[in-house]
Amino acid sequence: MLTMEFQHKDLAAGRWAQMSLAEQMLNIGSEVSRANRWKAKGNEEQCHRAADRALELVSLTIDANNKRPGLKELCRLYEVMADYYYGKNVYQTDPQRLQGYFDKFYTDKEK
Asked: 16 with 57: CB under 8 angstroms?
């Protein structure tokens, strides 16, 4: 059995599942923003730390929303992010499009 050492231990313990999907996505978007800034500065180590945190939060979001519509989209999001930060970027993702995906949740939260 694979065990994961969570960076966000309190969130993994159940607090994450109590947040709305919009709140979850906003938190992920913050980590993506950090990863993108570090990547632009050429600091791969810090970029990967932020990307790891973002991917962990996506994973927690998948677990918390596994019986709701949109599960496939969350799984694809994880795949695209992992490909962008660690793979060959076969989906041809760029940081502006990736950040833009999360930015729409700011407007959703304001409604």
From this structure: yes
Single-letter residue type at 34: R
The token duo for 3 is 């065990």
pLDDT of 110 reads 52
pLDDT of 4-29, one tens digit each? 455 655 565 578 889 999 999 999 99
What is the value of pTM for the model shown?
0.85
- Helix H, strand E, coil C: the string for the chain is CCCCCCCCHHHHHHHHHHCCHHHHHHHHHHHHHHHHHHHHCCCHHHHHHHHHHHHHHHHHHHHHCCCCCCHHHHHHHHHHHHHHHHCCCCCCCCHHHHHHHHHHHHHHHHC
The residues spanned by each domain of the chain are 21-110
Residue 62 vs residues 12, 71, 92: alpha-carbon distances, Å:
12, 6, 23
